[in-house]
Amino acid sequence: MNRIDRLIEEALSEEDRAIVEQTAERGYFRLGLDQFSGKLGWVTWVVMIVQSAMFVVGVWAAWQFFGAGDVLTALKWGIPAATLIVVATTLKLSLMPQMQADRVLRELRRLELMIARRDADG
Question: What parts of the sequence cross the membrane (predicted)?
Answer without folding.
Answer: 40-63, 75-95
